[in-house]
Amino acid sequence: MRLFTFISCCFLSLTPFLGASANTLDRAEAVAVTSPAGGVRLNGILRLPTGQGPFPAAVLLPERGVDASNPNSPNNQLLNSLADYLVRQGVVVLRLHERGMGGSGGSATTTTLAERSADAIAALNYLRTRPQVDVTRLGLIGHGEGGNVALLAGAQPLAPTYVVALAAAGLPGREVLATQPVMYGKVLGNDSTDAQRARKYRLDMVAAEQEAAKMRLKGSNAAQVQTYLDQQRLRQKAAMRRDEEGLIKQQRAMLEIVRQTSDNSQAQAILGNMLRQRYPGIAPTDLQASVQTLTTPAYRSYLSFDPQPELPAVKCPVLLLQGEADQQVNAAANLASLKKGLRNNPRVAELRYPNLNHALQFASDSPADAAAAAFNPDTPADIYKWIVSQK
To answer: Quick one: pLDDT at residue 190?
Structure first.
């Protein structure tokens, strides 16, 4: 394991895909691809560098539920900035609207990972028809669940020549979901339960500092004051750990209800009661949105997903890239599991970034700052260098 520290084309308005920083010198075409999984038509944007080529090429695969028409989403900003950089470096980039989004057929709520993998293969097959593309350097770059889609496609007969998996899961889907701070699909809205708990922890430490100041005034020495503060911090860490364990336990129980209860109405009623117990201030509309998402066919499909069986069939070069501050997909646990599944592939590289979150932004403790957090400027260059190093 190396450590790396027929199809119609037309010109349309491309702003949602390209983003504000798009290179005005590259060429962009609207394309439509038909997936072999159900014959679904998928709309997308193909960006071509200036020149004749042939160029390396990449299909970008987003996290589940990411609508490319939303330029403010951190996940979209990540892929848009990566696309901008790659095209400037001479890489053809194709991104399709996911099923049920951007005019593409199908439904996002029923799409399985197997169908997304078939869609990715269809995108690769389209690029193989383009004379500007070097078919010996034709890959998939996926983020989050898109990274798992890329790895699934890498195990297929018409595989890409390389795969870049950004923040992909190596653990089973139900385990990834259960350990997320706010399980994907839970819409908490204005419920302040978690915020109040975090505020209490902050106030407790302020009170401890105030008590330490009183101890100093009463003559306690530095060692005594430090011992007191250390004890308070240890108590708080233990309380936070218990909270985290309680949340994970509840989320595992909710996911088990979804897995075992095939009747959606029955499952949603049980899930609603469980959510209200932990989040008493949750709005009825948010509660309904949560339980509906948790029982969609797509969500049920992800609950049964295990990446391990397919990983040994991935023979192409793979770059595994993770932010170590990712709270959605734990870097250490999931990288270890991915590497285990890919252990017989000699062309696997790994790249970890300290203090980067799931969207590969610099991590922030404040949710309000997350959307505006800066992206690591080195990531696109690192990905490009790895792509061109593959022979």
So the answer is: 66
Rg of the chain over Cα atoms, rounded to whole angstroms, equals 23
Q: Is 183 left (phi over 0), alpha (psi -120 to 50) or beta?
A: beta
In order, the DSSP letters of 290-312 are HHHHHTSHHHHHHHT--SGGGGG
- Residue range(s) of every CATH 3.40.50.1820 domain in the chain: 2-172+305-389
Q: What is the mean pLDDT of each run of 10 residues along the chain (391 residues)?
A: 38 41 66 94 95 93 78 80 94 94 91 94 96 96 96 94 97 92 74 80 92 94 94 93 89 93 96 91 90 92 94 97 93 96 96 91 63 80 94 73
Q: Determine which helix (DSSP H) or strand (DSSP E) holds 334, and give its type and residue range.
A: helix 331-341
List, in sequence order, every beta strand (DSSP E) within 160-300.
Answer: 162-166
pTM listed for this prediction: 0.85
Under CATH, which number does the domain 2-172+305-389 receive? 3.40.50.1820
Q: Which of these, 308, 360, 388, 292, lies nearest to 78 by C-alpha position? A: 360
Helices of type H across 42-170: 74-88, 113-128, 145-154
Q: Which two tokens stand for residue 45?
A: 């944007």
